[in-house]
Design goal:
about 0% helix, seven-stranded mixed beta sheet, mainly beta, about 120 residues
């Protein structure tokens, strides 16, 4: 039902910043938790950050903590991932995901946006 669309990926030098955006095409996911995952070539898809839709509960992977910030806009229509101090190892396809509150499964996924960090 809910369609997630990511944007904001691109090329950046090490130490630079990017902001990714994820917008749902329908409002049926307003009560869902939102997350960002990433997958580098030849690697498993891994968790990066998540937030409750209210924006109160925030979680970060150790690899991005202190550098990345997840947030949502006031209208709860868009979720962002602000990425600072980017490193070459951050290079990956970044995916937006959504799940019902309390659910174990991330049921909805976007198509992904490429982030490439050069050294």
């Amino acid at each position: 039902q809910g369609l997630l669309v990511e944007s904001g990926g691109g090329l950046v030098q090490a130490g630079g910043s990017l902001r990714l955006s994820c917008t749902a095409s329908v409002r049926t996911l307003d009560s869902y938790d939102m997350g960002w995952f990433r997958q580098a070539p030849g690697m498993e898809r891994e968790f990066a950050a998540s937030t409750t839709w209210s924006g109160i509960g925030l979680k970060y992977a150790d690899s991005v903590k202190g550098r990345f910030t997840i947030s949502r806009d006031n209208a709860k229509t868009t979720v962002y991932l602000q990425m600072n101090s980017l490193k070459p190892e951050d290079t990956a396809v970044y995916y937006c995901a959504a799940k019902a509150r309390g659910a174990a499964l991330w049921a909805y996924w976007g198509q992904g946006t490429q982030v490439t960090v050069s050294s």
